[in-house]
Amino acid sequence: MAINVAIFSILFSSLTHAFFGTEEVFAVHVYKCGDKVELLDYKENYDVNPDLNYNLGGKSVDEKMELLFVRMESFEPLRAKMFRNWHEALKSKTRRLKFMNLGRPDDNFSFVNWNGCEIKVLAKATDPSKQGKTVFINQDLWASLDAKAQSGAYFNILINIEHIVYKLQETTMNSRFLNAVLASDQVDSLIKNKSKLYDVLEYDLVGAYGLGFKFNVFAGANGIKYSLGFDNDGNLMHGRYETPMRNLNWTKLDLTPKFINAPELDLRYYEGSFNIKEDNNFEMSAQLSKQEINCLGNYNLSNVSFITIEAILNEKQKEIVKVHGRFKIGNEAFETIENINGVFTPTTPLQDNYHEFAKKVPYCDE
Amino acid sequence: MKIFLIVISVVLTLQVIARESAGVGNGGGTVICPNKTVLLDYYEGQVNSDYTYKKLSNLTSEQLNTLFFKRVALYDEVLANFLRSLKDLYQKKKVELDSATFKIPDDFKNIFYERNCKLAVNIVQKRPTLGFEKIFFINKDLYQNLDVVTKKGLMFHELLYMVAINLEAENSRQVRQALAYLMSDQFEDSNREALHKNFYVKVTAGGFFSRFESYLPVICPRIERYGHKCSNF
Question: Which member of A47, A112, A174 has the closest CB to residue B102?
Fold first, then answer.
């Protein structure tokens, strides 16, 4: 008995420690109807909408998770990548608890009370960037779920890490709806109604894939600023983007754009806007990394802090057309370096009154 | 006038955004007594306003429809046509749920009824998120035992409430009063002024515009979110 109490105390202490570290805790719920236990996300949506039916396929939890990721990829590739990485990382951050109650259900639930059913807390999760365990599962309930409900519960956690922890939404009602639709025969309606859904979920539109930006892991965390617009077919058309000024501890983001004609140019921070029209041109303001050699063609921009880049999108790669700044090259000062026939060449002279602000640009082989 | 309409639209839109997170409307209710089940709207009409409903009890389903739309049209033909188009939406987007009860909404809390009676929610309407979902959810166990007057009354309540909620009504209290008046025997003695005060103002959340046509630029984009186009009517 004493050992049980001690174990309980340790577990309870680790739970409260994890949860008091942040306000943003969310729960995954199930309906317990007699001996049958079902994921709340699925029951509350499928049972009231005859036109919404589970059709995921796959037998094991892993197979079903893979199918959910694939569906998310067709809907939102970057977010799918983010969820895959989270799912992998959370395996070592999950604690399964036996003989423990995870508390009373506290969320915005359906208007329907199903006769003979009771809502129970299946799991609780918090900010995954916290140290230690951040997902706690009631293993007694978990063991009574089938692969359909278990995979749905895992996906609920991934969706709500973004929805509740990072986007600070108050309830999981809308994210549960997304979870249910994703596993249903109405999954296509997500793509057709992307903007409507994003409106409801207050999702960031992290669809800048076409510009060659790459999320390595854990994108969508605090600090990333996107505002993108899509046409009626869901194609990215215009927007604003900004690299994060501060990354989360466990977050490694690589948003640095790589230019095909300036592979050695290293940007530390950039922001800008783009408007993909016929010419696919875009512009960005950038702060350059302070490193010994930071080359644009044959020009070493290591001494230059800020530049503006005019670039063109070319088959998912970016090519610099022109760079604006204050460059002192030899005895002359320039405000532009242009790509002329594949060679970066200083062109427009800098106005006299800005000469004193121009930074020395040595050649890269000097 | 255009600018004025835009200002009104913006104000109304902001209010809706602030309030619509859950998107679930107040339910259509009944008072269930040992001998009889009565539409909450009519029950309140009897208790609070001494209305009577003798005429309704002799009408068929179709005659009840005709009476409802005819009486609305007496005040505003456009509103009557708008409600007729919502009736089609109701028929398409309703679903009966087995083994379920619905939560009692907040605006049912201050309702008086006899000690041996109880209050029940029979129909709930919910704004769809993506458009394919059902909108009107019916408690099948309760609904199948209702008489035609109550069934039709529930539908009329839902149609009027859809108008009211999309014109900023905070709950269904005013709609219940409006329907109680519209379908009462006392309606026969009304003039246009009474109809405006007791029905139109309550359904349009204050009756800011005296003609329903003026509300169309505001309400039509909202109704489109239910998958229903104003051009349909």
Answer: A112
Structural domain range at position B13: 2-232
pTM: 0.69
Query: What is the amino acid identity at position A103?
Result: G
Nearest to A111 among B95, B103, B133 (CB): B103
Given this model, what pLDDT does residue B198 score?
A: 96
| Nearest residue of chain A to residue B130 (CA atoms) | A193
CA nearest to A220, candidates A280, A278, A170, A158: A158
Average pLDDT, chain A: 78
Question: ipTM, 2 decimals?
Answer: 0.81
Any B CB within 8 A of A115 CB = yes
Tokens standing for A94? 């999950």
Q: Tell me which long-range contacts A10-14 makes (C-beta under 8 A, separation of at least 24).
A: A11/A95, A11/A97, A11/A100, A14/A95, A14/A132, A14/A133
> If you write DSSP's letter for every residue of A15-69 in order, what string do you get?
HHHHHHT-S--EEEEEEEETTEEEEHHHHHHHTT-TT--B----SSHHHHHHHHH
Query: What is the number of domains present in chain B?
Result: 1
Asked if the Cβ–Cβ distance from A48 to B134 is below 8 Å, we say yes
Q: Looking at CA atoms only, how far is residue B226 from chain A in angstroms? A: 12
With CB atoms and an 8 Å threshold, state whether B130 touches A50: no
d(CA A272, CA A255): 13
- Residue of chain A minimizing CA distance to B20: A200
Ranges of residues in chain A whose predicted pLDDT is under 70? 1-23, 77-78, 195, 203-258, 269-280, 313-317, 366
Tell me the HSE value of A122 on the side-chain side, using a 13 A CA sphere.
25
Distance, CA of A337 to CA of A340 (rounded, Å): 9
Say how far apart CA B137 and CA A50 lie, in whole Å. 11
One-letter amino acid at A191 equals I
